[in-house]
C-alpha cells in the first residue's frame, strides 16, 4: 500500500508552531528558550510565535524566572481572560448559561426560569446570577 506524503504549507506550519507554543505556555509558565528546547523550534521561530500571541493579547511576560547562572529567563503566562466561551443549557423549565475563561473556570453564571404557556414562570428557578 502506498502512502501519499503531503507537505504542509507555510501557513499550516506557522499555525502548528503557534499551537505548540501556546500549549506549552498554557501548561505552565515557561521562557522562550524552554519553548525552543522542548519543541525543537529555533529560538527565532519560538520568539516570533510568542510575539504574535502577545500582540493578540493571549500571552504576557510574567516577569523573571529563577536563574541557573547568567541572565534570568523571562517567564511567559497565558492571559486567562483574554478570550471566553459560553455554554447554554435550555430545559423545559429554565435556561442556564455560563461564561468560561481560557482555563475553563466559570466567570459568570445565570439561571432564568422559562415562561409557562399561562404567562407565569414554569419552574422554581430563582433567576439570580451566581
Written overview of the protein:
With 130 residues, this protein is of the alpha+beta class. The protein has helices at residues 10-27, 32-39, 43-55; strands at 59-64, 74-78, 85-90, 94-100, 106-113. The chain folds into two domains: 10-78, Arc Repressor Mutant, subunit A (Orthogonal Bundle); 81-130, no CATH class. The protein is 30% helix and 25% strand. A hairpin with a 5-residue loop joins strand 4 (94-100) and strand 5. Helix 1 (10-27) packs across helix 3 (43-55) and helix 2 packs across helix 3. The longest helix is centred in the N-terminal third of the chain and has 18 residues, at 10-27. The radius of gyration is 22 Å and the shape is flat. The termini are far apart. Residues 123-130 have low confidence and may be disordered.
In short:
The protein is α+β, with helices and mostly antiparallel strands. The protein has helices at 10-27, 32-39, 43-55; strands at residues 59-64, 74-78, 85-90, 94-100, 106-113.
Number of domains: 2
The biggest sheet, with number of strands, parallel, antiparallel or mixed sense and barrel status, is: 3 strands, antiparallel
What name does CATH use for the topology of the largest domain?
Arc Repressor Mutant, subunit A
Low-confidence stretches: 123-130
Major β-sheet strand ordering: 3-4-5
Mean pLDDT: 88
Amino acid at each position: 500500500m502506498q502512502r501519499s506524503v503531503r507537505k504542509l504549507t507555510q501557513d499550516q506550519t506557522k499555525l502548528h508552531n503557534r499551537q505548540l507554543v501556546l500549549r506549552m505556555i498554557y501548561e505552565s509558565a515557561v521562557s522562550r528558550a524552554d519553548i525552543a528546547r522542548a519543541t525543537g523550534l529555533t529560538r527565532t521561530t519560538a520568539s516570533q510565535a510568542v510575539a504574535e500571541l502577545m500582540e493578540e493579547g493571549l500571552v504576557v511576560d510574567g516577569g523573571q524566572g529563577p536563574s541557573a547562572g547568567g541572565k534570568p529567563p523571562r517567564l511567559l503566562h497565558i492571559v486567562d481572560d483574554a478570550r471566553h466561551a459560553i455554554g447554554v443549557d435550555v430545559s423545559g423549565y429554565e435556561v442556564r448559561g455560563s461564561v468560561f475563561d481560557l482555563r475553563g473556570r466559570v466567570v459568570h453564571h445565570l439561571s432564568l426560569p422559562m415562561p409557562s404557556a399561562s404567562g407565569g414562570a414554569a419552574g422554581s428557578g430563582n433567576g439570580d446570577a451566581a
